[in-house]
Amino acid sequence: MNLRPEKSNDNIVVKTTYIFSSPLYDAEERQGFIMQEIFTLSAYETDAGHFFEALKEHHTDLLLDVRLKNTNQLCGFTRKKDLEYLVPLVTGARYEHDVRFAPSPETLKGYLNHWTDWEQYRKAYLADIGKSDAEKLFRKEYGRYRCVCLLGTATKKRRSHSEALAELLAKRKEG
User: Do the beta carbons of residue 142 and residue 62 sit within 8 Å?
Assistant: First the structure.
């Protein structure tokens, strides 16, 4: 696994990029799979210009929205219906919203209300998605994409479950 350094500016949060160069599953499951890059991007504290430029800079094939809620007006331009239209138009990438990779409402509520810290939240989130074998599900559903952006909810003060998901996928890939 190769790591690229974090990139950030005042308008966008782009977490560590994970580049996988060794396949995880047998040849039948990864037919045609050569390399996959996974990076995280936040839907918060950014503007459309920086957001879409980050997707284009990485040559993103798939924007995978792993947020639990993405339809209210507080999401701004990152509302589901807007991204369904804008992502293919602006970047040529596919947009998917998949709540199977989102935290449970209870887990998220505890973190947002400061009842749990990051480590507790991360562990609870990984337990949530571990029940459905999310890592294998991800490879099956999205392993054919060369560059996947996991869209989460990080802010300058709060980390996102998308980071924990990216780390899980990278860790499994190494092993």
Answer: yes
pLDDT over 70, % of the chain: 78
Asked which of 71-75, 109-113, 155-159 is least confident by mean pLDDT, the reply is 71-75
How many helices (H) and strands (E) the chain has is answered by 6, 8
Is the Cα torsion angle 40, 46, 50, 56 positive or negative in sign?
A: positive
Cα dihedral 128, 131, 132, 135, rounded to 10, equals: 80
Read off the tokens for 150.
């996991």
Alpha-carbon distance 58 to 38, whole Å? 10
Structure tokens at 53: 């430029």
Name the region of 133 (left: φ>0; alpha: ψ -120 to 50; beta: rest).
left
Task: Report yes or no on whether pTM surpasses 0.85.
Answer: no
Q: What is the pairing mode between strands 36-42 and 94-97?
A: unpaired
